[in-house]
Amino acid sequence: MKILLVNPNATASMTDKIAESARRVAGPGVEIIARTGEGSPASIEGHYDEAMSVPALLRHVREAEQQGVAGVVVACFDDPGIGACRELASGPVIGIAEAAMKAATMLATSFSVVTTLPRSVPVIEELARRYGVDHQCRKVRSASIPVLALEEEGSGAREKVRDEILRAIREDNCEAIVLGCAGMADLTDWLSRETGVPVIDGVTVAVKFVEGLAAVGLGTSKICAYAQPNQK
């Protein structure tokens, strides 16, 4: 089984880190094909960046579909271009925000999201409403760090994320935490130990969701909203 994992931004080091996390949880015989959004913004930190990342994302999905991948993981917490990707793909397409939020509802009665910059907060709040989990999402919080700080040694980014999680547990009375950025994928084990609650990374969860859906023969419906586009 081949699963396409796309980092929609143009930072290859982040793709490598995300792919490592994905491969760590992938089942036997599952190959993770990792791709970077060449020509896209270096990080996705707003609506404009999100829109500019979609063309490269769709190109990778189109190429992978021709190669017969079983499914696709879109590894950006804004879940950019998901509907368009589902029109192109025959297998399941999972965004990491939807995967992480829905996993959180299976593990706890409430959760909070900790993301990077304050400008990401309203985007994620809207995603929680769209996915029908806003009544379980206690709060979307920002650690006030740029996305690329997660790639810099000595930036203190991981400690800022941990401290924001501890505030969320104390102030929101949440039972689980969702990490609101794919660049945090390598922090889950450490953060879970540091904070004592389930800390959920959407990359690894999305990989397992795609793997499971594909394994039982389920793919994207093609009879209406996600029918193949007239022009590919």
TrEMBL record:
The record's annotation in InterPro entries points to: Asp/Glu/hydantoin_racemase, Hydantoin_racemase-like, Iso_Racemase_Enz_sf
Q: What Gene3D superfamilies does this protein's entry cite?
A: 3.40.50.12500
- Name the protein family: Belongs to the HyuE racemase family.
Record's protein name: Aspartate/glutamate racemase family protein
User: What taxonomic ancestry is recorded?
Assistant: Bacteria, Pseudomonadati, Pseudomonadota, Alphaproteobacteria, Rhodobacterales
